[in-house]
Amino acid sequence: MLCASKGLRRPLLFLLLLLLYPLGPADLEEVPVEVIVDSSPCSSTCGLGLRTQTLCLMKHSRAEMEEAGEGTEVSEVCRVHKVKCQESWKCGLTTMTVTSGRRLELDCLGEVMEAMGTFSWSFHVTRVSWRYARGIITSDDSLFARWEAPQLDRVVLDPVREEDAGTYLCDVQDARLRRVKRVYWGVRVLPAGILNLD
Predict the structure, then answer these.
(1) Phi, psi values for residue 123, rounded to 5°
(2) In what order do the strands lie in the sheet with 145-147?
(3) What is the pLDDT of residues 82-125, one digit of tens each?
(4) What is the pTM of this model?
(5) Cα angle at 175 between 171 and 181, to 5 degrees?
(6) Are residues 71 and 145 in the same domain?
(7) Where in the sequence is the domain holding 143, given as residue range(s)?
(8) Helix, strand or coil for residue 99?
(9) What CATH number is given to the structural domain containing 183?
């Protein structure tokens, strides 16, 4: 069970290779070096997102650059890859008004799963929990009670009823149980037939 966690497999494999084939100082001077030449903003302003980075190989090894006294020159051999990013775990309060009898869906992880893929997402997020403050719109955490959602990543109220009004809170934790996202949805429910409050 040494490699049970996906996050540990690569570092353990790399460590094993270093033990089997140790590198001396001369070898390290010749190891190709990649530098980040371009990076996109995080795909999400709160919670987990993805950033696209372009990495290019250096034209010369470290030893060659020191010998020639040149600056860093980047080759045209590049690759693009995606990395996880997180600007903030606090997503704030979003309010909405819906009419009784309609379908309401509150999606806590949609953008993350869309960006990372469902399979990849399952390795990065281990816990999604919901809480609910009945009848009020608030971000005061002391007013929330635990709420069981049949689907962990979303709440679906179909049909939504007037008694469903209130604030729904979603917390997301990663594999190390660190909070990576918290979002509040304040939901007002109008009786059927009323189009607006004016």
Answers:
(1) -85, -20
(2) 90-99, 179-190, 166-174, 125-134, 145-147
(3) 888 888 888 889 999 999 999 999 988 776 666 555 555 555 66
(4) 0.65
(5) 25
(6) no
(7) 90-190
(8) strand
(9) 2.60.40.10
